[in-house]
Each structure stands twice: as C-alpha cells, then as structure tokens.
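Tutorial sheet, problem 5. The two components below are modelled jointly, 504 residues in total.
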Amino acid sequence: MSKQKNYNSRSFHLFRNYIIYSILVVIIGIVVQYGVFSVFAVRQKMKMFDQQVDAALLPINERHMDSVLVDLFKKKVFLETRFQMSKADSINLSINLKDSILQLELKGVVIKSTKITDFEVDQFLYQLKPATYQHLFGTQSQVKSYLSTINKAPIVVKKAPKDTTEAQASSVKMEPLKTEVVHWMLKLDKEIILKIEGSDQYSQSDWWIGQKFWFKENMNSFKNLKETIRFKVPEYYPVIRLVISESDAKAIYRALPAKPFVGIRL
Amino acid sequence: MINDESNFKGELNTCIGKKGKLIKFIFWLLMPIFLWFIILFFLVGIPYLENRPFIFEKTLSAIQESENNSKFEKELQAGIARIQKKMDRLTPGGTYLIVNTSDNTFSLYRNKALVREGLCSTGSYIKLEADDNKNWVFQTPKGVFSIQGKITSPVWRKPDWAFVEEGLPIPGANSSSRFEYGVLGDYALSLGKGYLIHGTLYKRFLGQPVTHGCIRMNDDDLKTVYQSLPIGAKVFIY
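Model answer (structure tokens):
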C-alpha cells in the first residue's frame, strides 16, 4: 500500500516537474523568439530607411565625417527643415535635442520655446548613415496621428438659458481650473514616434494617471509578441521620448493643428 | 724557405684584406637597397597580398579626404549662414504680439526683444447651444493675424449670442439695445472677422479663459499694446 503510495507520489512529482520544465522551455522559447524577431524588425527598418535614400545623396555616406562635420551637417539639415516648415500657414513643432529645446514656430517665428528637461532616443536613430539621416530629418515630417491624456479643445457644452433669471444663476458659477495630466504621443509619417511627458516640480496632476496612459500604450506592443509567436517580424517604430514642463506640454499640444509639421535635430 | 713562406702569407693577407674590403664595400652598398626592399615589401607587398590599399595611397586619400572635408566644412558653414539669414528675416523686425491661449498670457516684442508680458483672457471654449439648433463656440482663433484697425473709446455692438447667453430675446439688427458703451475699455485693436484685442471691466478674470473669442487685457497693458502695434503689425496666437 505504502509502496503504491510512494510510486504515485513519485510519478506525480515527475509529472509536475515535466509540466514546469515544459512551461519554462516554452517561455524561454517565446522570449528568445521575441528577441530574435525584434532584432530582425530593427534591421529590417534600418534596411528600409537606407533603401529609401535618394541615390544622389549617397556620396555623403562615403565621406568620413568627424564630430565637427557631423554637428555642422545636422545643424544645416535642421535649419533647412525649419525653413521648409516656415512656408506652411499653420503652427509647427521643432525639436532640437542637441540644445534640449522644443519650439512652436509659425511662419518661421518662434512663438513658444521650452526647455526639454530630459529625453531618450532609440539608439537606432544614432546609427543612421548621413544620407539616411538627411532623408529622415532633412525634410519636414507630418503628424499622422495623436494620442493624449487631454482634449485638443476643452469644449464645454452649455444650453442657452430660457430667461434672465436662469442666465444670472448660471453666470455666477465659475468653473475652477482643473489640473490635468499632460502626456501625449505623435506618430509621424516617417515612422517615428514622439512621446511627450509633461512633468516638473510644480506638477499637481496624478502621477499614476500618466503611468496608466503609457502602460496602456505599451500594452500595444503585446501585439508584437503575438506577431512573433506567429513567426512574423513585428513592426518597429523608433521612439523619441521628451520631458517638458506640464503647463508648456499642455499649451504646445493645444496649439498644434490637426496635422502639424515636425522638424527634429538629433 | 722561411722568407718565402712569410711572403706568401703576406700576399695572402693582402689579398684577403682586399677581398674583405670589397665584400664589406658591396655589403654596405647593398644593405640600404636590401632594407629599402624590406620596407617596400611592408608598404606594398603585404597590402598587395592582402588586397588592401597601399599605405601611401591611404596617406594620399587621407590628404585628399582632409582637403575635401575642409571644403565640405566651408560649404556647410556657408549653407548654414545662408539659411540662418533667411530664417532671421522671417521674424518681424518691428513690433509684434504673441498670445498664449492656454496660459492666457501675452508677450509684446520690439526689434526681436521682449518688451512687455502679462496676463490676458482668451476664449472660454464654451459651446452655447440655443433651442433653434443654433450654436456658437467661444474660441480664440489660432494662427498669424495682423492688426486691421485701431479704435479709441470703442462701442460694443452686441451680437446675437450675447442676448441668447443672457436669456433675452434677439433684437433687430440696428436696435439701440445692441450698443454698449465703456465695456471694451479705452482702446480696441481689430484682428478681423469680429475678433478684437480690448479692455475689460472684469479684471479679476484676467489669466483665465472667459471671453467669447476676443483677447482682453488690463488698461495699462492695453494702452502699451495699442501704442506699440501699428496697423499691419503681426499678432501670433497659439
């Protein structure tokens, strides 16, 4: 009886171990697969960017450029982009990561300038060949889609009062100014994602709401995992993440038109 | 016998001495050539065997590259100066006003330098819906505008929404009840399409979005802005 019990217990342990090891192997397999396919995705994107490059620009790639030349080259590319953007009638965004400045420009006039307090750029963008860099940042990018924690126009609908008494009663009510979490994301037509976080020492908004917004957004990369399980190379979008003051993040977001142009200098 | 032997040895020594000198001479003559060939082998032979550019070719290309780079640097600098000049020309040299509708602030610039800034009030973003499917959105327009007219002691000609908002019946187009005196301050600057920069009786609301689309300022700021901005001056609203 006891022998039988021992045997049962041993086979149960063996079965349990088998299950645990199988799960572990599957998880490790998925992680490795995800890693390999993600690397493929990045390489594919780099190849795609390189192939898009205008052949006339290719000699730039052959040139050995020291840091001074690279700096001048990027400066010129950025100025050219800003000059192109100045021809548009609407407000546009210029991001200078070298000087940590984010600006709103209208017809070439800087109407708002704010300090970028922190930023992160995907290493991918620093690996670009000069011609690819010129192709990506030498012309203006246009915003394809927005995602934000705040409304573009905070419109409040109000019904017209029926008489003067009702009008007087409603005019006394003054809405207090709301503190809002200001985080927004722009997807550019050149397949780059800009993530802007409004945060500073004066921020009064709830930190958790912002984190929830980014968590939800990051959950979209779960799609990538599903793709890799199906042996498909996932989509890769290089990301630039910026932190600016909360009030400026709100003012800039609300000032931007539906499809603004964006100029970036790395 | 001894003498013959010693003579022979002497001749041999002389002969060996001459040959030795000759060998030494040839050795010192060939040594630099030999060394030159060794150097040449390192400079040319090995790169040739490895199928890579010769060292002097590299040096030449480095010189060429450095010349090209200095030329490229000059081109870049000239390009930057040219575009920077164009960009600088886009910013008005005279006086212009920038209005921030999010923070409800304004900045007045003269010769590209900030001369005054302060609070203002802009559109409330209220959408007023009347019973007859009419609606109005009280929003300050964004973009670049220019001063189209300047008025002193402006009179407000109340539009329809002003009556709807107060729960009053809409009077006729030229009814006297449409005209209000003294509510717009001492000055008004027209931006077109009925939008004005004007004064206000409700100074406690400055810094808040409370207007119907116009830009309100306090008396001192309004006076400065009125005196500084000529007709045609640019107003940037964002």
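Marking note: Chain B touches chain A through 44 residues (CB under 8 Å). Full credit if you identified this.
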